[in-house]
Amino acid sequence: MRGSNYKAIGVSGCLAAALCLGAVAPVKAGLPGLDSQGQALPSLAPMLENVTDSVVNISTRHKIDGADNPLFNDPFFRRFFGLPDPRRVEPPQALGSGVIVNADKGYVLTNAHVIQRANEIVVTLRDGRALSAKLIGVDAEADVAVVQVEADNLTDIKIADSDKLRVGDFVVAIGNPFGLTQTVTSGIVSALGRSGLGIEGYEDFIQTDASINPGNSGGPLVNLRGELVGINTAIVAPSGGNVGIGFAIPSNMAVELMNQLVEYGEVRRGRLGIGTQTLTPELAQAFGFKWQEGALISGMEQESAAANAGLQVGDLVVAVEGRAIKDTAGLRNAIGLVRAGESVPMTVIRDGKKMTLNVLIADPASEQFVGEELSARLTGVTFGAIRRESPLYGEVDGLQVLDVRAGTQAWAAGLKKDDVLIAVNQHPVGSKDGLAKALKGKRHGVTLTVRRGNRVLFVLL
């Protein structure tokens, strides 16, 4: 759930216990104080004093839209029924947190869900200054957003390489939970690379037991050097409160997406043009793999980026740019960070041998197009990328049927809205170009393979 615009999908670590192991150290300059025996007291205060100025509170205003009925615009009618003014703007609501990542340009990194549908964004600094913010870009797929403020004397945070995090590393979450500004909680990294949680389209979360509560969303997760390692975004909350299972977007992922948002105003993800399955022990045995992790290529579009690079059905993808790929979600995340038009080295296992191929990532498929552009048989059918709300989103490669006009050939053959087209005459399709190639030269009957919920159906045209 999301309460106060934070995310939850459904035990707190104690830093003090570990730090007390060093309590017998001799007194050193800069330590915050002494205990009754004259020993130095461990504290996170020196680190936090250098970090908290970069943490901000984010609030938004939303316009309340009036109904279409003209009666709602009549002041007497509204007063009689106690209805709000349709032009009224809500007072600002403190929704979440953010962190300044570039003081010179005023860039603030936060979660997409913190500022969604906002008409006005207000960033409040630790010194009390409330600044109007400009939205630079949003990537809802990974829940990352960038806003910009204009002000002097801003403090930005140092950014760490999140790939160097280890399970057991101490971390600190900073934010504004429940409207309580500049709140700090500590814990450890409980797990890395968490995915398959159904929170985002792209998931590669850091799991931590540092308390994350409503209002923490978008705030920084830092290491003991005060460097950004993640952006707090979600918790598991079966009882509605924090139970010590929180998730943060790794800083490397967040910064790469931020760079694209700053440059383009959007994230320009490329496409491989393949279908994959997570390697299981059964698949490993059937294909004779000694490896136990990876993404098995189960389908491929003709003339796709993968096909042009020499990848084949049956290859096991085990690494992208040297980073190990454990499953299908890991491959999706890795490719999701590669810009269209860039080349990326992919390591695969084929016939028991490891090889690396350079893949030029293709431009993403057109967002929406009509079938008659490609074939008269598809007149009246509107196609597009698989929508996030579809149960097949992230599960298969294909094209979603966005509309089928009644009375057309496709409608009579049984094609329905929200079907997902995965193949034409047994050739996988996942883009407009792929569909065009599969239809090329087909003068007679065409067989569409579609997924409808959990069923696979054939539609003959």
List the keywords.
10 helices; 26 strands; disordered N terminus; 32% strand; 461 residues; 3 domains; alpha+beta; single chain; Pdz3 Domain; Thrombin, subunit H; 6-stranded antiparallel β-barrel; 7-stranded antiparallel sheet
How would you describe this protein?
This protein is an alpha+beta fold and 461 residues long. It has three domains: 1-10 and 53-266, Thrombin, subunit H; 274-360, PDZ domain (Pdz3 Domain, Roll), CATH 2.30.42.10; 368-460, PDZ domain (Pdz3 Domain, Roll). The protein is built from ten helices and 26 strands. Strands 20, 21, 22, 23, 24, 25 and 26 form a seven-stranded antiparallel beta sheet that branches. Strands 8-9-10-13-12-11 form a six-stranded antiparallel barrel.
Task: Provide a short characterization of the protein structure.
The protein is α+β, with helices and mostly antiparallel strands and about 450 residues long.
Radius of gyration: 26 Å
What is the overall silhouette? globular
Helix content: 10-25%
By CATH reckoning, the class of the largest domain would read Mainly Beta
Mean pLDDT, as a whole number?
Answer: 80
- At CATH's second level, what is the architecture of the largest domain? Beta Barrel
Main beta-sheet strand count, sense and barrel state: 7 strands, antiparallel
Number of strands: 26
Tally of individual helices: 10
Q: Which structural class is indicated by helix and strand composition?
A: alpha+beta
SS strand fraction: 25-35%
What is the rounded distance between the termini?
44 Å
Which topology of the largest domain does CATH recognise? Answer: Thrombin, subunit H
Number of domains: 3
- Poorly predicted spans: 1-6, 8-31, 64-69
